[in-house]
Specification:
By secondary structure, the protein is of the alpha/beta class. It is built from two helices and three strands; from the N terminus they run βαβαβ. A three-stranded parallel beta sheet has the order 1-2-3, with no helix packed on it. α2 links the parallel β2 and β3. The protein is globular.
């Protein structure tokens, strides 16, 4: 369980939509991560829609960056 990490930059890692959805599934119980950057990871439109749905379960994340993805 994460108790200290507040910022995470996973930019340019070719996570794709499936990886992004897995990350957000894990963040459903997040209570410390405030900023997440997933820039330039080839996340498509459908992946961002799935992320939007999963964000409704997370009340802690304050900033999400999805710059330079495929949508």
């Amino acid at each position: 369980t994460n108790t200290t990490l507040t910022k995470l930059d996973l930019s340019c890692n070719l996570i794709y939509s499936t990886g992004a959805v897995e990350i957000f599934s894990a963040l459903r119980t997040n209570t410390t991560l405030l900023k997440l950057s997933l820039n330039d990871n080839e996340i498509c439109k459908e992946g961002t829609l799935d992320i939007a749905k999963l964000l409704s379960f997370n009340n802690t994340l304050q900033e999400l960056s999805l710059y330079m993805n495929w949508f």
